[in-house]
Amino acid sequence: MKQINEVVTLSIEDGIAVLTLDSPPVNALSAAVRAGLQQGFTAAIDDDAVQAIVLICAGRTFIAGADISEFGGDKTEQTGPDEREIMDNSPKPIVAAIHGTALGGGLETALCAHYRVAAQSAKVGLPEVHLGLLPGAGGTQRLPRLTGAEVALDWMITGRHVPVAEAAEYGVVDEVVPDESLREDAIAFARRVVAEGGELRRVRDRDDKVAADRDKPELFADFRKKHARKFRGFKAPEAIVQCVEAAVNLPYDEGREVEKRLFAELVSSPESAAQRYYFFAERAAAKVPDVPRDTPRIPVESVGIIGAGTMGGGIAMNFANAGIPVTIVEQQPEALERGLGVIRKNYERTASKGRITSAQVEERMGLITGSLTKDDLASVDLVIEAVFELMDVKKSIFTELDEICKPGAILATNTSGLDIDEIAAVTERPEAVIGMHFFSPANVMKLLEVVRADHTSKEVIATVMALAKKIGKIPALVGVCPGFVGNRILYARRRESERLLMEGAMPWDIDTAVTNFGLPMGPYQMSDLAGLDIGWRKEESAGRTVREVLCEMDRRGQKTGAGYYDYDENRKATPSPVAAKIIEDFRAKEGVAPREISEEEIFERCTLPMINEGLHILEEGKAVRASDIDVIYVNGYGWPVYRGGPMFYADQLGAEHVLERLRFYEEKYGSDFTPSPLLEKVVAEGGRISEL
Ligand code: T1G
Description:
Blueprint: E1 2-3, E2 8-13, E3 16-21, H1 31-46, E4 52-57, H2 83-88, E5 94-98, E6 101-103, H3 105-110, E7 115-119, E8 123-125, H4 139-147, H5 149-158, E9 162-163, H6 164-168, E10 175-177, H7 182-196, H8 208-213, H9 218-231, H10 236-249, H11 252-267, H12 270-285, E11 303-306, H13 310-321, E12 326-329, H14 333-352, H15 358-366, E13 368-371, E14 382-385, H16 391-404, E15 410-413, H17 420-424, E16 433-438, E17 447-452, H18 458-470, E18 474-479, H19 486-503, H20 507-517, H21 523-530, H22 546-552, E19 565-567, E20 573-575, H23 577-590, H24 599-619, H25 626-636, H26 646-653, H27 655-669, H28 677-685
Parallel strand pairs: 3-4, 4-5, 5-7, 6-8, 7-10, 11-12, 11-14, 12-13, 14-15, 15-16, 17-18
Antiparallel strand pairs: 1-2, 2-3, 8-9, 16-17, 19-20
(2S,3S)-3-hydroxy-2-methylbutanoyl-COA binds next to strand 6, helix 3 and helix 12.
């Protein structure tokens, strides 16, 4: 056994060289890994005792890609041939032995081997698109030569992890072997290759698949048309299509030049910087500084939900999807039946799209039990209350649950902003009370705001943060304050958009400014979708605001066919002259002469208060870190991931610029724009907002 460098070792076993890479956590292609591979392959090729080479990795996975943390930094210039060129020019057969997830540069390295042997549980993929990149190490040129253009486009545009059994259909993998015998099977495979002799075949020299695509020019046009909506705002997908077109129409080396050029453009783009930032932000959000990874967790093998409405039903589906039995409790039989019916309809709709089988529908419905009494929750490990937003109602429910539920059961509330400390105070177990704020539709939206109350224990926090991932959610820990983090920031935007309405902007002007930035909808489209009457009470309404007047006119949003917009039978929205008139009347009443407001000013005045509120939230310790706020906005509010999130975007504007513009608006509009002291500190120290 020879130590090539700190992460690569070389052993020779009867003529077969085994290069082992061991660079936790995922054998990413850091500078040290690449150097070790270059030296290792060179040593094996130069050694006359070696007839073939096996590349294998230690730890949890084969190479999972380039080291994302090294992008953007000053990369050490590659001098001499890189490991892929050495592999490409090897006179001796190379076999890559794949386990875990061979992704991005990892799969690209394996495609430079002559053969690939994979453990049956392994997956392969080219997920660079999620980083705003394209496979920049030959993947856009080699993969189509094995799979053909159409399959290659699917793999690279979705970035999905492909099971090796499927990959083997295209020769991306040559042999699938049992997980436990990967090493010896790969060595045996190499021996057979040596014994059989014959010409070494390189993926880059394959032409049959791409030649067949040369007669289908419509393939790329159709692909672009089909995915246009999904590509909106992203640069990488189009670049990937151009690379695959090059793979079909150009010799390998020329196609590789196209790939290098487009990769260089993407890696220096703000979109990719945002998406690479987001990659680490999402993983950081799972970490709670004072709750260590090894904090004991409470087993959650059964769950109770109070309320079978839209939220309760959606929440129940998350647990059934993860195979966890759920008891969902309603007060009235009709409400319970209706709720269970909606759940079944949702599953049947998913099945009709082929995403689950009808057997899975029955299996999941079988995990959901309806009940009319909270007494049925006596033995569950976790209860999530999901009834309407009235503190008295929640308090009475928690008082009952505290009596009924077994000791140690976690009592969670799905409240979107009420004071959880107040709720916890009615129980004898405040340490077991926590917020689990799901976003509607709860069975679809990825974000879960986990709300830490004053007495919530570390075990309960650790349990719920881990449980979130188990049910396919992305958790972010937040503190108790009105609206927690996501909605509290949204309130700041709402306040400013109402001021803009009075000054001369119309709801559609504001929504357009926000959607042109890349969000799926603006504040007024969101209100119409959610319903203008959330929290509105007819008996108290007195025409004091545009919203009250609209609700009093029964214009409560999409569900009534009219709100700020008018809706046709397909819910297509058009700006409403009725809403415009109401706004104009309010302006007249205030004696305001409306003015034309530019899209740029509208967007700036909607966004600066969001950034400032995020900084206040950090000052108050209601979010653990700035990047958690971005994870919340990307996953709960549709902030485009290629923009990173409000805090990352603030750094793209520059902290100093943000401070200066807040001061400018503070002059005009007062304290709503008073810069947070934390922002002034960041600017004084020359720091970055997203690194707080
Ligand atoms: N670079 C650096 N660190 C990485 C990493 C990577 N590629 N992948 C994972 N990590 C870290 C991660 O931050 C975390 O660190 C730990 O590993 C475990 O990750 C030239 C340009 C492999 C499926 O996009 O999809 O190749 O928090 O929590 O859920 O064409 O990580 O423990 O300190 O996610 O089991 C392409 C990205 C790169 C794969 C494992 N490759 N990684 O998931 O663990 S670009 C990718 C993943 C590229 C080439 C291009 C997942 C995983 P910490 P984890 P997991």
